[in-house]
Design goal:
Elements (H helix, E strand, L loop, with lengths): L5 E6 L8 H11 L7 E4 L12 E3 L7 H8 L7 E6 L2 E3 L5 H14 L3 E3 L8 E4 L6 E4 L12 E4 H7 L6 H6 L1 H8 L3 E4 L6 E3 L1 E2 L2 E2 L1 H9 L13 H16 L2 H13 L5 H8 L2
Parallel strand pairs: 1-2, 1-4, 2-3, 6-10
Antiparallel strand pairs: 4-9, 5-11, 6-9, 7-8, 8-10, 12-13
Length: 272
């Protein structure tokens, strides 16, 4: 039973409220036996209501990281399952596997388990006795990130150091993990398979194809993201994953020079 161990926080904002119905529809469909409290964390109060999910929001406009700090007031459990509004769960979840991961966190005092394989260059030694479960090298960029995963409430609270946007908050997480001496794991077992739906407010092509194949999931009218942008996104990820560390910064500088956006670049300039 996870009810007394974890609380789920789905981070969102009012501009993305058109995603809520579809996100929750797939969550119910693919994790129907979940028994823990679930909250959508928004930036504004909403008239939307759901029978199994509560929407919470600060009374005033604050940065993303401060919305996280606000949401943690509602968490009465020691562990938190964090995910985002545009990560749609598309395959069934094995609750027993999830329980085993949380129980491992409890017994061996782990602080974080990422349920998404990337970045693969942060993957370390396997955890003996567990299928496709590995230690994380915290020093790697984005080794700790906002893809779906389990956190201790204490570690998550520690990471809220100062007001930051979601993007600048995420890019500093691996440094917070190093400072905290966090024990972090990644599961490559496809425990929580998501469809990445939106970038820059526009539908990604894979998501548009999925919704066409599965009518009734998403009923909004968002514009389709450009193929050029999605290629740039793929290229950026490829570089982060495969370019040798000694070559990473020069390649990144060229990318930024020609109009690309890099939050690791912004972070490095901020902390010079």
């Amino acid at each position: 039973m996870l009810k007394d161990k974890i609380t789920c926080l789905i981070f969102s904002c009012d501009k993305f409220s058109d995603l809520w119905e579809g996100n929750l529809k797939l969550l119910r469909q693919n994790w129907g036996d979940r028994d823990f409290d679930t909250y959508i964390v928004s930036d504004k109060e909403s008239n939307c209501t759901f029978p199994d999910v509560k929407i919470i929001a600060p009374k005033k406009e604050v940065e993303w990281s401060d919305r996280l700090k606000f949401a943690l007031q509602y968490v009465k459990t020691e562990y938190v399952f964090v995910t985002l509004d545009d990560y749609f769960l598309i395959e069934p979840v094995n609750t027993k596997r999830m329980e085993s991961l949380v129980n491992l966190m409890i017994s061996d005092k782990y602080d974080y388990i990422r349920l998404f394989k990337n970045p693969t260059n942060a993957t370390g030694e396997p955890v003996l006795g567990y299928d496709k479960l590995y230690h994380i090298r915290n020093q790697a960029n984005y080794s700790v990130n906002l893809y779906s995963g389990f956190w201790t409430k204490e570690f998550l609270s520690y990471c809220v150091r100062e007001p930051r946007s979601a993007w600048m908050f995420e890019v500093t997480l691996h440094k917070q993990a190093v400072l905290y001496n966090a024990k972090c794991l990644v599961s490559c077992n496809k425990d929580y398979v998501i469809l990445d739906v939106v970038r820059k407010g526009k539908l990604l092509h894979n998501a548009a194809r999925y919704f066409k194949k599965h009518p009734g999931i998403y009923e909004g009218n968002r514009e389709l993201q450009s193929t050029k942008y999605e290629f740039k996104l793929w290229w950026k990820t490829f570089v982060q994953e495969h370019v040798p560390s000694w070559l990473f910064k020069p390649v990144r500088a060229i990318y930024v020079k020609f109009g690309g956006q890099s939050f690791t670049y912004q972070k490095d300039r901020e902390y010079k």
